[in-house]
Amino acid sequence: MKKLLTLSIAILAASALTVAAADAKETYEKDCAKCHGKEGKGDTKMGQKLGCKDYTDAKVQDGMKDEAAVKAIKEGVKDKEGKVLMKPAEGISDADAKALVAYMRKFKK
After folding, report:
1. Is 65 helix (H, G, I), strand (E, B) or coil?
2. What is the pLDDT at residue 21?
3. Which of 4, 32, 42, 104 could form a disulfide with 28 if both were Cys (CB 3.0 to 4.6 A apart)?
4. What's this model's pTM, rounded to 2 decimal places?
5. Domain count of the chain?
C-alpha cells in the first residue's frame, strides 16, 4: 500500500510539473516572444530596440540569476532614467515566474 501511495504521489507531482512546463511555454509564446523572440534570441524588432539579451548565449545564461529573472518578470524592468523597458507580468504567481525562468533556461546552447 505504501508503494502504491508513493507511486501515486510521484505521478501527480510529475504531471503537475509537466502542466507547469506547458503553461510556461504557452505564457512565454503569448507574452514574452514578441520582444525576446520565439527562441529567446531577442532578435525581434522590439527586442532589438529595447536591447533584449540573447538567451541562447551560454554567457548570458550564466550571468542571469534565477532570483533576478523572477523579479524582472514580476516587477518589470526600467532603465537608469526610470523608463519602462519591460512591464511586469500581470497576475503571475512566484511558481509561474519560476517556471518561465526554467523554460528560458532551455534556450541555452
Report:
1. coil
2. 53
3. 32
4. 0.76
5. 1
